[in-house]
Amino acid sequence: MFLTRWEPRPAWNRLAQLHTEMNRLFDNLGANEPAPFPLINVFEDADGYNLEAEVPGLDLADLELTVTGPSQFTIKGERKSAVPEKANVHRQERVTGVFVRPVTLPAMIDAEKVEAKLENGILRVRLPKHEQVKPRKIPVKS
């Protein structure tokens, strides 16, 4: 006769194991999603906002910049694949295709004075604040 030792396994042990597996599942859920393109930095000074976007390999013809609202700016474009048609791709981490990247700023911008330049794969955009939102010094009379 074959005997085995019986060890009770409380239900909470199985629940703890299920909890661990569910956490692992949800932690990895967004792991394969690509980062938004292009990556941007936005910083503010007294007169406006400066936006820098990493767009390596893109030309001015590949980009469309628009002011889409009082405090909204959008970068649209297309990143074309550099892989030859008959090549076997073993790894492709750079996202290709059409992209749209909207940016909402904290205050209104002056669409008429927006300036942009592209140098060494970095798009730099100057977004001046609208006169209505700039602080004004009030003279005090005595």
Structure report:
Helix content is 12%, strand content 33%. The protein is mostly beta strands. It has a domain at 40-81 and 96-133: Immunoglobulin-like. A four-stranded antiparallel sheet has the order 1-2-7-6, with no helix packed on it. A three-stranded antiparallel sheet has the order 3-4-5, with no helix packed on it. It is flat, with a radius of gyration of 26 Å. The N and C termini lie far apart (108 Å). The model has no long low-confidence stretch (mean pLDDT 85).
Characterize this entry briefly.
By secondary structure, the chain is mostly beta strands. The chain has one helix spanning 11-27; strands spanning 40-44, 48-54, 63-69, 72-79, 97-104, 115-119, 122-128.
Secondary-structure blueprint of this entry?
Elements (H helix, E strand, L loop, with lengths): L10 H17 L12 E5 L3 E7 L8 E7 L2 E8 L17 E8 L10 E5 L2 E7 L14
Antiparallel strand pairs: 1-2, 2-7, 3-4, 4-5, 6-7
